Amino acid sequence: MIISSWNVNSVRARIENIKEYLKKFSPQILMMQEIKTPNETYPYEDLKSIKYENYVFGQKSYNGVAIISKQKLNNIENDILKDKNKQSRIISAEIKHKKKTIILINIYTPNGNPVDTEKYTYKLYWLDSLIKKLKSLSKKYDNIIIGGDFNIIPSEEDVHNAENYKNDALFRLEVRKKFRELINLGFHDAYRYINPDKEGYTFWDYTSGAWQKNNGMRIDHFLVSNSLINIVKSVNINKFPRGREKPSDHTPIEIELT
User: Fold this and answer.
1) How many CB atoms lie within 10 A of CB 167?
2) Which of 141, 162, 238, 254 could form a disulfide with 156 if both were Cys (CB 3.0 to 4.6 A apart)?
3) Domain hosting residue 252, numbered range
4) Is 241:247 a contact under the CB 8 Å cutoff?
5) Residue 60: closest CA among 90, 33, 88
């Protein structure tokens, strides 16, 4: 089973790229972030036409998350976090894999910049809410996979020039500590577990030739329960969509389960 995560930066603007990716690489499940549309204008028919079921928690203009799947998913929830700002940033589902029941959680963490504003305060609040919820879920379920755009650079090796990001909301020490708190609940950073020394950028800004210069960062992640890490066959960053015409500034990260 291949589960993919991709901040598409507008599902409607990127629909042809998304369909191309799905047809070419055929993940069983794709978790999308920043779909930037309410449910009413989401392109259901485009994705149904290539045999994907759609589970959507949209929002007009900004945010929004969705899970699409070749198989029907169960227990879809979009309110496992009580978000004081009422933003569409999380959706979860229950999936079956080789007799295992897995809770799959798709997240889009707030960016948090500029750091001297309420946007940063909201990011910390949102991460604390996520940590609290996962503490509770981990007591009920052994098998959890969290994927999405975390908007966190875990360490210096995960960004092209760490010095430039010391006071950025993606790399501030207290934000990285939140990421570590998540892992300490009983998870592995799946990409680093499988690829301990390999560069793994998932985002390149549109400006200053960042893609061409490979000035990227790793901010899209899969966190996998300790109980599942032995069935993770590979974690791959698929750069193909980032090189297409009118791409998202992110590219998919894919986890393969045996």
Assistant:
1) 12
2) 162
3) 2-257
4) yes
5) 88
* Domains contained in the chain, number: 1
The length of the chain is 258
CATH code assigned at 231 = 3.60.10.10
219, 152 in Cβ contact below 8 A? yes
Residue 235 tokens, joined? 């974690």
**Residue 116: Cβ within 10 Å count:** 9
Q: What is the pLDDT tens value at each position of the chain, 258 positions in all? A: 999 999 999 999 999 999 999 999 999 999 999 999 999 999 999 999 999 999 999 999 999 999 999 999 999 999 999 899 999 999 999 999 989 999 999 999 999 999 999 999 999 999 999 999 999 999 999 999 999 999 999 999 999 999 999 999 999 999 999 999 999 999 999 999 999 999 999 999 999 999 999 999 999 999 999 999 999 999 999 999 999 999 999 999 999 999
Where is 213: in which H helix or E strand?
helix 210-213
Tokens of residue 8, six digits: 């598409």
Rounded to two decimals, the pTM is: 0.97
